[in-house]
Specification:
- This protein folds into 2 domains: 152 residues, no CATH class; 145 residues, Trna Endonuclease, Chain: A, domain 1 (3-Layer(aba) Sandwich).
- The longest helix is centred in the middle third of the chain and has 23 residues.
- With 326 residues, the protein is an alpha/beta fold.
- It contains 13 helices and 8 strands.
- The chain is elongated, with a radius of gyration of 23 Å.
- GO terms for molecular function: DNA binding; restriction endodeoxyribonuclease activity.
Length: 326
Amino acid sequence: MFDNVTDGIKKWLIGVFAAAIKHTSRPEDRVIAIRWLSQSRDVVASDIGTIDKFKRLNALINSRTAIVAVANSVSEAVSSYRKSNLPWSMKIALPATLAAIPLVGGHAAGIAAFGGALGVPVLLLIFLGTAGITSIIEAVVTSPEAQTHVAEIIDVIISDERLRRTSAEMKAAMKEQPMDPTRFAMPKEEMALRQHLLDMDPFNFERHSMSFFQRAGLEAWATRKSNDFGVDGFAVHPDGLIIVQCKRNSAENKVGRPTVQQFKGVAEEQSAHRGFIITTSSFTDDAIHSAALTDRIVLIAMDDLVRWHLEPPSFDFHPPVGDISA
């Protein structure tokens, strides 16, 4: 019961932080806030002592006027928790839960120890931990308001712990001419939908394909600039990086084994959680067999893509188990 109450309080606080950032008046302030959260996450994850963590987190809050404004907004929302939509049991538990966050010298410091509005967010970040801070970032970067500054946001995303095994070259490719995912209007009738997908501009097809990942709640973007990895889009799943290759081929131009083999190698070298090949055609038998040798590669043919328009995918995976054979 206690764990359920604590988890509920954390989810509410994540929403409070995300709302405060989304409601900032300038788009660039949202980027500043995302960078602040990323830096705060690094502090929380560090091995330094509790007091030093508090000092560094407090310094980060005071480093920019925009962050001070967000912190004040969070403090006001938390202080007005009695008027919030929190369940009654959580409203009762909230004061005691927050008061016991920092243990300094064996004594609970409580909110008052950091006096004033800016001390409250410091304690809350400690309480939420790295996972909670990541959830705030994800809630903000997947919002429509954030997409106008996708390049700056990607800088924050690629420093995420989930991408620690991604090479510097791949991270550079992730930042090259990024484009926000765009869900283009599509015909409802199936044959018209298929033809529309075949007729799409290749770059628009990539952005449209990546919109399914964004709609599922993942951080996602396409890249206009070609790269040595053959990756057209990226998404960050809770379990790691997703790389996407888009093939807007004619119906008779099937994707073959060499394409799958090459992309499978990229996914393995970059420790990608999954690699998707999305095409408006289909795959040869050899290509399907090659993909079946690993859990990392997912093939999406035209029939699958049509189904995505009817039933949006959720991208819930089991962890990849590696290749069956080389």
